[in-house]
Write a structure and sequence with these properties.
By secondary structure, the protein is of the alpha/beta class. It has helices at residues 18-31, 39-45, 50-57, 67-81, 92-101, 114-124, 148-157, 171-180, 194-199; strands at residues 5-8, 15-16, 87-88, 105-113, 131-135, 164-168, 184-187, 205-206. Helices cover 42% and strands 15% of the residues. Helix 1 (18-31) packs across helix 4.
Length: 215
């Protein structure tokens, strides 16, 4: 195999989280008297962490005087409802098991809240994902597309960059891989289409999880 370490994005790559994110977003907006958004709107908003999601969803973003209260409502609702409809994309669990069987190291690096990232990985991938890192609260640890959390994952896995690849579905993931000095595999079943990914520097694409076993 070409790679022995796989660093995965979570939302839009391993898990289809869009419906639950949209539900929590619209719940928060509704509770604070703000207009709600369609699933397609929320699809365009995601990819840079939940704070950025809500900055895009709330009128005037973080300049809105009710931003922090609305964002807090979103966070609380999502932590209780992140498993309502979220599921792995078809074929993902089987591919992770096969990669693990082949001796590969597997980690998740996400801009999702740390607690939600860890909880979702424990729930869906307890025997395959060894390290799960979300939005880091430690001072000096920057979120994607900075390379900090990728380097933290590699350190926790006990490996270096040789033989490692980043797998994601967005422009942020492409930039994260580039900033980390890793090759990037962009998946086409997530939140962004091929044309968008090509515009943002995507070069290697897969249309089904099973293709990970052949690249």
């Amino acid at each position: 195999m070409k790679y022995n370490t796989y660093i995965f994005d979570l939302d839009g790559t391993l898990l289809d989280t869009l419906t639950d994110l949209a539900a929590s977003c619209n719940y928060a907006l509704r509770m604070h008297g703000m207009p709600e958004h369609s699933i397609d709107d929320v699809r365009r908003f995601v990819g840079n962490g939940v704070r950025k999601l809500m900055e895009r969803a709330i009128p005037d973003g973080d300049a809105n005087p009710d931003f922090e209260a609305t964002f807090a409502t979103f966070r609380e609702h999502y932590m209780h409802h992140s498993l309502d409809t979220t599921r792995p994309y078809p074929g993902i669990p089987e591919v992770l098991v096969e990669l693990k069987t082949r001796g590969c190291k597997l980690a998740v690096v996400s801009n999702k809240m740390m607690a939600a990232t860890v909880d979702l990985c424990r729930h869906f991938f307890p025997d395959t994902i060894e390290v799960a890192i979300g939005e880091h609260e430690a001072e000096g640890i920057r979120k994607k597309p900075a390379p900090d959390t990728v380097f933290a994952a590699l350190k926790q896995l006990g490996v270096d960059k040789d033989g490692a690849v980043y797998v994601g579905d967005s422009d942020v993931d492409i930039a994260t891989a580039r900033n980390s000095g890793l090759p990037c595999i962009s998946v086409l079943w997530g939140f962004r289409d091929r044309e968008f990914l090509i515009e943002h520097g995507g070069e290697t694409f897969i249309s089904a999880p099973s293709e990970l076993l052949r690249v």
